[in-house]
Amino acid sequence: MPTRRLTRQLIWQLLLYTLLFGAVVTGLKAALVWRNGQQQMDAIPATVSRLYLPLLSQSAWDVDIPAIQLQLRLIAQIPGVQSVVLRTELGQSLRYDNPEQGGQDNSGQYQLPLRSPHSMEAIGSLQLTVSRQHIYSAMRQEVASATLAFLLGFFGLALLLWLLFNRRLVRPLQGMAEIVRNYQPGMQLPPLLPGQQHGQIDNELSELAQAFRSMSNNISHHLQERQRIENELASHRDQLAGLVTARTRELKQLLSFQQLIAGISTRFINIPLHDIDQATQMALGEIGHFMQVERCYLISFADDWLVNTVHEWCASGIQPTTHALRGQSMLQRSWACQQLQEHGLLSLDNLDALPEHAMLERQELEEHGVQSLFMLRIDHMGRPVGLFGCDMVSHPRQWQGKEQQQARLLGETLANTIIRRQQLQALGLAQQQLHAANADLARMAFSDGLTGIANRRHFDEQLGLCFREARKQGKALSILQIDIDFFKQFNDSYGHLAGDQCLRQVALCIQAQLPAATDLVARVGGEEFAVLLPGYQATAAATLAEAIRQAVWQLAIAHGRSSAGDRVTISIGVASLQGPPQSEHQLMRDADKALYLAKHRGRNRVETATAHAGTPQGN
């Protein structure tokens, strides 16, 4: 029973506190016994000095061995003394052990000096070994007696508490619990405490019984009030249920509409241009199903109400019609266009609402079998950008105000589709123009305007990249420095137009000799060219340089004022990356030195720079 568990808890808590108190008291008694024993132990040297040391000094001075032994035995019989040892200045030693305290640990030693009875001269020393064992024995006796007394009182108290709790608390509570367990609201409540008068309160139990009797009365009153309220609520329940059902239906429809709007809006966020048509078609299908129409369409304008694009969704068995409007002007339908311009919408519950002068509109609607029509103008920044509309074919339909509001919201949402399409088309055109402009700028920035090959800026950038990659990966790298021999004399003799044509022919000839796509030729000066050869060792670079020189020779461009021959020739300096770390500038200087040597040795030749010093070698 819960009351018995509570009783045990209370009794055990009281007993636990009593046990803790008893343990503290026992500990204090043990500490007091230890303190008194320690004081007695500390007083032993003073007692020996006062009572035995004068006689022992006299006996030691007189060398009275029996008297000395007697005094040592008397000292050893003092409680707590384990042994006593006398040592004289002459080297003599006498010892007496207490047989009752022999072999005990936890002992302490004291040294007492022996002085002459006639002067203060030291004649020996007395060593006392004192044991604490008697203190421990006294502590054990005190703790045992205190514990025994406490346990007797503890169990007596436990028995007394158990009897008292059962008589004064447990049994009355069990009787009250049984009455409460069988109690039913509205029934007469019997006395909770037998033998006690009604309304009498003399302890907590009687107060609890009175509180429960008051609670019973309150419950009965509450039940009566509850019955009255339930009778009043019952009359309104059916009406409220009907209102809730209607409102729930409206909320579900509103939630579906909000989800539709959110889904359409989300679908067109960051949508690419090529997906807009498919997304628009899906959105029209969702709108058609939600609004329960048979045809739903979205029309976009180019300029002045001219139809640009048409998207249409039709229910099963309904033929599409609005695709025929593509490329036509809505201004041809004067009455419909006037309604859309003035009111922003056109709503026809049936064709009888059409005026007589709307002959073209009536003819088209009858031709396509339309019986009801709702059309909404879509504006952006104060100008019409399209139309959103719904048709009914199988039967007429009266367009409600709520449906018109939903159609307006859907039209505003679909306006983003038209605007997004126009923006993406404009953006695509602008990106194409920008790409073309960037390509032109790149060609202008990195190519030579006369020859069409790379310029000095592009060559320097590629040289830096190739040099770092070659050093990092341990690859070969070579450079050719090329100069057209006696080009100034060629310009003076044949004119600048012929000189420009010569430069173009030489540039194209050099480029044609490069076998790899990574090889780069650039015009780095007036008649100077440079070739970047990633992966080329010195021997391969010199071989390619010789092939380029011969190819230019075979162009056979006439040059009557050249000292190197009867045609245009070139001189080439070759430098390769090898040996200890270099820089790209050092590599260019080595190629320039090799080119200078080629010119110095008669031109129309190839010279290769050495590994470190840059001294050219003939080829």
Question: Topology, pairings included?
Answer:
Elements: H1 2-62, H2 65-76, E1 81-88, E2 93-97, E3 107-115, E4 122-131, H3 133-181, H4 204-267, H5 276-291, E5 295-301, E6 307-314, H6 334-343, E7 345-348, H7 359-367, E8 372-380, E9 383-392, H8 401-446, H9 456-473, E10 477-484, H10 487-494, H11 496-512, E11 520-523, E12 528-534, H12 538-555, E13 570-576, H13 584-600, E14 606-609, E15 616-618
Parallel strand pairs: 13-14
Antiparallel strand pairs: 1-2, 1-4, 3-4, 5-6, 5-9, 7-8, 8-9, 10-12, 10-13, 11-12, 14-15
Helix pairs in contact: 1-2, 1-3, 4-5, 4-8, 5-8, 10-11, 11-12
Q: Care to describe what's here?
A:
The protein starts with a helix and ends with a strand. With 619 residues, it is an alpha+beta fold. It has helices at 2-62, 65-76, 133-181, 204-267, 276-291, 334-343, 359-367, 401-446, 456-473, 487-494, 496-512, 538-555, 584-600; strands spanning 81-88, 93-97, 107-115, 122-131, 295-301, 307-314, 345-348, 372-380, 383-392, 477-484, 520-523, 528-534, 570-576, 606-609, 616-618. α4 crosses α8 (401-446). A hairpin with a 6-residue loop joins β14 (606-609) and β15 (616-618). 56% of the residues lie in helices and 17% in strands. Strands 11-12-10-13-14-15 form a six-stranded mixed sheet, sandwiched between helices. A five-stranded antiparallel sheet has the order 6-5-9-8-7, with helices on both faces. Strands 2-1-4-3 form a four-stranded antiparallel sheet, with helices on one face. It folds into four domains: 2-141, Beta-Lactamase; 193-264, no CATH class; 268-427, Beta-Lactamase; 456-618, Reverse transcriptase/Diguanylate cyclase domain (Alpha-Beta Plaits), CATH 3.30.70. Residues 612-616 have low confidence and may be disordered.
